[in-house]
Hints:
By secondary structure, the protein is of the alpha+beta class. It is 35% helix and 27% strand. Helix 7 (263-274) packs across helix 8 (278-288), helix 7 runs antiparallel to helix 10 (320-344) and helix 10 (320-344) packs parallel to helix 11. Pfam families: FtsA, SHS2_FTSA.
Amino acid sequence: xxxxxxxxxxxxxxxxxxxxxxxxxxxxxxxxxxxxxxxxxxxxxxxxxxxxxxxxxxxxxxxxxxxxxxxxxxxxxxxxxxxxxxxxxxxxxxxxxxxxxxxxxxxxxxxxxxxxxxxxxxxxxxxxxxxxxxxxxxxxxxxxxxxxxxxxxxxxxxxxxxxxxxxxxxxxxxxxxxxxxxxxxxxxxxxxxxxxxxxxxxxxxxxxxxxxxxxxxxxxxxxxxxxxxxxxxxxxxxxxxxxxxxxxxxxxxxxxxxxxxxxxxxxxxxxxxxxxxxxxxxxxxxxxxxxxxxxxxxxxxxxxxxxxxxxxxxxxxxxxxxxxxxxxxxxxxxxxxxxxxxxxxxxxxxxxxxxxxxxxxxxxxxxxxxxxxxxxxxxxxxxxxxxxxxxxxxxxxxxxxxxxxxxxxxxxxxxxxxxxxxxxxxxxxxxxxxxxxxxxxx
Length: 442
């Protein structure tokens, strides 16, 4: 467990150092695109404004932005190290050129890696008359860590609720009078190999990793409005290779998971169904795609085109109804998987069951209506919150992860390792392997 604290605290310290220098890069490594934003901070570090407070929009401005087609990433995980490295270098260099400044530290987000959520609870006596930092540290160390198995590492471990003498729902108990302090914590673990590969890619690009986050988490930060985060809502981040699912309540994430399917799978279905290239299938999906067929769609013909040299083959047409017939089953399959995960998480028991769709694949026409039928809840399409200096081209749903990562970088939610956990109170189960990659890569 000491290794966990050392590695995560090292990243926290690098983030603070980058903010003091005034500039840090944001890196969203996705299956369809790699996005890089360069942030300039005004010198204030608002990270000490209480346990678990979610981000505001003050303190930074976007001064550089660039995207490039993702290479070597599949299902949100790095598959080809060299290709991913080149894609990251391309995006970072273009963003640096736009910003006119060099960046050394990046905060990265990734999807996939089979995330698993755990709910932890612990209790501890308050030593003094009022709750202080040490009391919070002790109750966090009293949380019993589950045996999440080998080959997995902790990505997030956030206190989501405090109980002081049977008074529940406390966000920050410090300074309050009481005798016994309890805590509920949400822990998210991911496959270690996915983190190691991404960290190694970033290191090979001559950059320092100053933070890591789950894309499902940061997409929820940017796409959910404050009332939804407070009352309970789910964010469905439909990316290219994976669809992230996160549930928020009381402004904290309490569950995260992912479906290993996304917009690229819809494109592949079109490519195979119409026997065209992936690039042509993507163009057809973007311009003519949809999920709800009408009587008009049988008569609306789409020229497929092509460059095979075969005149008959390249002059083919297909009706829009046929295209919808190819796309809809795959989207239904993705939404069915999402519903299974929401049911397993007990989403029906939240006081509000708002569902927000975001991510690049959420822009398919008719998706919100189909999602409300399959998920059986209120569904809306979400766009990321506006942040200062963000280019107009980067304000769409496909940039929800990147914008959420900006907010996460400026105001990180307090994690387990932000407190001085007493060594003698560490749980019996060792987390020796946790985030080992960080120490190995130094």
